[in-house]
Design brief:
The chain is mostly beta strands. It has a domain of about 120 residues: SH3 type barrels (Roll). About 5% of the residues lie in helices and about 45% in strands. The chain is built from 3 helices and 14 strands. The strands form 3 sheets. Strands 4-7-6-1-2-3-5 form a 7-stranded antiparallel sheet, with no helix packed on it. A 4-stranded antiparallel sheet has the order 11-12-13-14. The longest helix is centred in the last third of the chain and has 5 residues. The radius of gyration is 26 Å and the shape is elongated.
Length: about 240
């Protein structure tokens, strides 16, 4: 992508960055800078780095206007030099801005930020960080004892492929505390959520491919108390 000119971005910084002896205290800040280019990076599935599914991140490479912080829509901000370059999530950029060269305040000249965004809706990228559809369609987990495998197949064609495993169940879902899994059913209203059953307990996760969002450890629910139909059928007591 070609270089875009200037814009406002939001970020976090250490309030005590100039004091090496002080504790780190992160605060919200506003800056202006030049958007140099945009990066799209996909991180592959990795057991070593605990990446459960391929994940794409959209990032912005920005060269900041040195020592410029604040909202240029409500005050006049000036700078004479560019500072460091940073890489931020693309959603950090809120809107574009301009600059005007002036010698009104300094004989050597400086740039004044032109920001006319006050009252205007800011950008809302709504970037979904997820793997490509090709990575997720027609895949299933199969369980045997304390292990699972992940398989890809095409309906009506004998071309199934082993993608992962056999792998211990407790690796992919460590916080559930389950060594074995009896049943997994979809969580209605959640794109990739599920209920996972093991013995007399179950846990609800927002992503079947991730242990990052789940019922906290040792708080798995008792099936018979939450699923009266299964208790009535005599499956759980």
């Amino acid at each position: 992508m070609g270089r875009v000119e200037y814009g406002l971005f939001e970020f976090q910084k250490d309030k005590n960055e100039d004091d090496p002896n002080a504790e780190i205290e992160m605060i919200d800040a506003i800056g202006y800078g030049r958007l140099d280019f945009i990066l799209a990076i996909t991180l592959s599935r990795s057991q070593e780095f605990h990446i459960d599914i391929p994940t794409t991140h959209i990032l912005a490479h920005i060269t900041e206007a040195k020592d410029v912080e604040g909202d240029g829509a409500t005050e006049i901000l000036r700078f004479s030099h560019f500072g460091r370059s940073v890489v931020l999530d693309i959603t950090s950029i809120k809107h574009v801005a301009g600059r005007v060269f002036t010698q009104g305040m300094r004989q050597t000249g400086e740039w004044a930020i032109v920001d006319r965004s006050e009252g205007v809706a800011r950008t809302d990228f709504q970037v979904d960080e997820h793997g490509s559809d090709d990575e997720e369609v027609d895949q299933a987990y199969f369980f045997s004892g304390e292990h699972y495998v992940r398989v890809r197949w095409t309906e009506g064609v004998v071309n199934d492929e082993l993608l992962e495993g056999p792998t211990p169940i407790k690796y992919l879902w460590p916080q559930t505390g389950f060594d074995q899994i009896d049943t997994i059913i979809p969580w209605p209203g959640q794109h990739d959520g599920a209920y996972i059953f093991s013995g007399d307990y179950y846990v609800r996760v927002r992503s079947i491919d991730s242990s990052g969002d789940h019922t906290p450890p040792h708080q798995n629910a008792v099936v018979s108390r939450s699923w009266s139909s299964l208790h009535k059928a005599g499956f759980y007591w």
